[in-house]
Design a protein that fits this description.
The chain has 360 residues and is an alpha/beta fold. The protein is built from eleven helices and nine strands. The chain folds into two domains: 212 residues, Vaccinia Virus protein VP39 (Rossmann fold, 3-Layer(aba) Sandwich), CATH 3.40.50.150; 103 residues, no CATH class. It starts with 22 loop residues before the first helix and ends with a helix.
């Protein structure tokens, strides 16, 4: 990992693939096909009795009611202020117009905020942060692959916790000789979109491979986009090498993973619990990468760290699971605590801006 590459600072213009002449053309066609997921429309959660998000919706409705009623905003600030460490930004994303709370009236029986405890409010804020969607742009993901290429070995399993629309999983399966790449996503619509994008990718791969002047065989030597060596089965077996699971990342065992990827920018309040989970489940030598927030569990050794504005828009860290867990001394939990007074001042400014927009 010495002599880091010179990182790209923006997405280059896509190279038009006008004809499939070489496996490199197949790779480029497939990489281009899985860009742009950050622009997708985010549908609201479904308000139905069996929804796994029913409690989230109920608490969200109670918070939103206080936001919309100016006379209750002081009470809203009072309830949110003890939990600023769990809020991404200033006003929780779920309470903003683009949030995922349903836009239909609350059903009978939903509690007002006065009947909802502080523990439920904090849990709602943590879950709300996890619903925020973001992904690395292509040049950032290319930078990331350049940075980790030297420590990726043939075989192994890559797992993306919070895989969204599947861009990182599908890109990693193309870029590296992983035996399997798995995405874990809790939000149903995102999982469904990832599955559809994989279906589209496989259909496009079939057409691109069929267009090659010389048929690709399982034994055909391939040079992978980020420097590794493979053979034709790398592309021919894509369908068996990529999988998406709709599940809570805390309930998926990652003991077989050689690399766990987390776009963890919205996972701040979860990082200690994630570190503990990964320390218990991962094998010595396995790798973990995070964004924005460090992994502070002592079972992980930092291999490299890239400041915001170099590899990506935010910090990116790569760790290795090191040493038997019984020899690790657990440190105190990490806190992510912004200044509550500064947060409240920003929030009240947002209230005023919201009211100005309504008047206009």
């Amino acid at each position: 990992m010495q002599n880091p590459p010179v990182f790209r600072t923006h997405d280059a213009a896509s190279r038009p693939v006008v004809a499939i002449q070489h496996p490199d053309d197949v790779f480029e066609t497939l990489f281009q096909s899985i860009q742009g997921g950050e622009q997708h429309v985010r549908p609201p959660l479904e308000l139905r009795p069996d929804s796994p998000f029913l409690t989230f919706i109920e608490v969200g409705y109670a918070l939103r009611a206080c936001l919309e009623d100016k006379s209750r905003r002081d009470y809203l600030v009072q309830r949110l202020r003890p939990h600023v460490s769990a809020i991404i930004g200033t006003l929780p994303a779920g309470l903003q117009p683009q949030g995922m709370l349903p836009r239909v009236p609350a059903p009978p029986g939903f509690r007002p905020l006065e009947q909802i405890g502080d523990a439920e409010v904090r849990a709602w804020l943590v879950e709300d942060g996890g619903l925020i969607y973001g992904e690395l742009q292509r040049h950032e993901l290319d930078n990331y692959f350049d940075a980790i290429a030297a420590v990726i070995r043939p075989g192994g399993v890559m797992v993306d916790l919070g895989s969204g629309l599947g861009k990182v999983v599908m890109s990693a399966a193309l870029a590296f000789p992983f035996q399997r790449c798995i995405g874990v996503e809790l939000i149903g619509y995102r999982h469904a979109m990832a599955a559809q994008r994989l279906h589209n990718l496989l259909a496009l791969a079939g057409k691109a491979l069929a267009a090659l002047p010389s048929p690709l065989t399982p034994e055909t030597p391939l040079r992978l986009p980020f420097g590794g060596e493979a053979n034709g089965s790398h592309l021919l077996d894509l369908a068996s090498r990529i999988a998406f699971i709709e599940a809570d990342m805390f309930r998926v065992d990652v003991r077989g993973a050689s690399l766990v990827f987390m776009y963890s920018t919205c996972f701040g309040p979860l990082m200690d619990a994630l570190g503990d989970k990964l320390a218990r489940e991962m094998q010595e030598g396995a790798l973990v990468s995070t964004t924005t927030y460090p992994l502070t569990h002592p079972a992980f050794k930092l291999l490299c760290s890239y400041p915001a504005g170099t590899l990506a828009w935010t910090n990116v860290m790569l760790y290795q699971r090191a040493g038997p867990l019984e020899n690790v001394v657990t440190t105190a939990a990490t806190t992510y605590e912004p200044d509550p007074a500064a947060w409240e001042e920003r929030l009240r400014q947002e209230f005023a801006a919201m009211d100005d927009r309504v008047l206009k």
